[in-house]
Amino acid sequence: MLRFSAESRQNASALLHGLIRRQPLSADGWHVLGDLRWNERDMEQALLCFRIASCQATSNEHYALAYGGALARNHREEESFFLARESGAEVRQLVASRWNLDQLD
Q1: What pTM was computed for the model?
Q2: Burial class for 102, CB neighbours closer than 10 Å (0-12, 13-18, 19+)
Q3: Which pLDDT tens digit goes with each residue over 31-46?
């Protein structure tokens, strides 16, 4: 809900930055900030946030897929391929099937 108006996006951004300052290892905080930046069309910042979230929670499939998908949608398939290759077997198969990458094993 906080992303629907400019004022509420500013509030959401301030809240998320406060959370990340207090809990820099919060994968949830980084991921939500990435979503916010994505909706603002700040792709580089969104990708950075998604990357941090996926690195903080390496077993979270959603974060890996979100990061891989954001890379692919920004024509950075090679990085998406590398992410899939370096991930665990289960995440690797999810990323490969979701983003139509060749078999990665």
Answers
A1: 0.71
A2: exposed
A3: 999 999 999 999 999 9
